[in-house]
Amino acid sequence: MTLVWALLLRGVLLLAAPPLLLGIIARVKAVVAGRRGAPLLQPYRDLLRLLRKGAVYSGTTTWVFRGAPIVALAATVVAGCLLPLDPRAAAVGFDGDLVLFAYLLGLARFVMMSAALDTGSSFEGMGASREAAIGALAEPALFLVLLTLAVATHQLSLAAIFTTLGSAGGASPALLLCAAALGAVLLAENARMPIDDPTTHLELTMIHEVMVLDHSGPDLALIEYGSAMKLLVTAALFVGVLAPRAFSQPLGLFAGLLAVAVGIGMVESVMARLRLPRVKQFLIGATALAAVALAAQLFAQGAA
Predict the structure, then answer these.
(1) 3-class DSSP state for residue 175?
(2) Is the pTM of this model over 0.90?
(3) How far apart are CA 248 and CA 2, in angstroms?
(4) Among 57, 99, 104, 202, which residue has the least CB neighbours within 10 Å?
(5) Does 163 fall in a domain?
(6) Residue 30 pLDDT greater than 50, yes or no
(7) 79 part of a folded domain
């Protein structure tokens, strides 16, 4: 019975909580700016409204454009199942699943870039090009962080990694460096400030938003929901590295996710969007932090 409740709780957290994180971020930004802001549950209302609308397709698009939102959402859901939101009841887990986790996030990005290119619009092609550049800079940091976790725990499964980290106690200097690198990856993967401005209306500064301009109705709802789920998954990974003991408890994980959402809202309230050359430096710095974390972990184990 405990296992069933753990599975149910993880499923509710993964499927129901993502839009709530977006609502918290918007609410924090409104409070900091001195505005009343939208209701906390507004993202849920927006998704329901989009689902009730019809979809419009350009005559130049193919099945790639229509299938991309479904594939991107499915890849993100599977990535969420690989991440042990409750280590006592991992939905999917095997040695090496940390590599599949990273590749599933990359697959979601790839199909959305393909959909943008499928429209035949040079404007959306510009957004896809920028998305590819940011992904190419963020993925090395993510892989180095996952490698550091594998070296630190001598495990190749995400469930085993976070179970080991939770039982080990406090975070080591290497894990703190990993958390710093993951914080940068979190902002980049989810198109948040200072990498991208999700509320911008300036055409030449758009990255993620320009890629989904031609999507409408249920397709846009799937994209927005998938983006929110990706935020939850990457935020959960960040919480697991920064606070392993909190990650091992459902309530602690939920509190950690809320704290991450509040932190993102604060960052977006006090920071401006970086220029594209600065984005490159920002993500290269995250990769350097992850590399230092790996070196520190290897040195610590060699000294022991």
Answers:
(1) helix
(2) yes
(3) 15
(4) 202
(5) yes
(6) yes
(7) yes
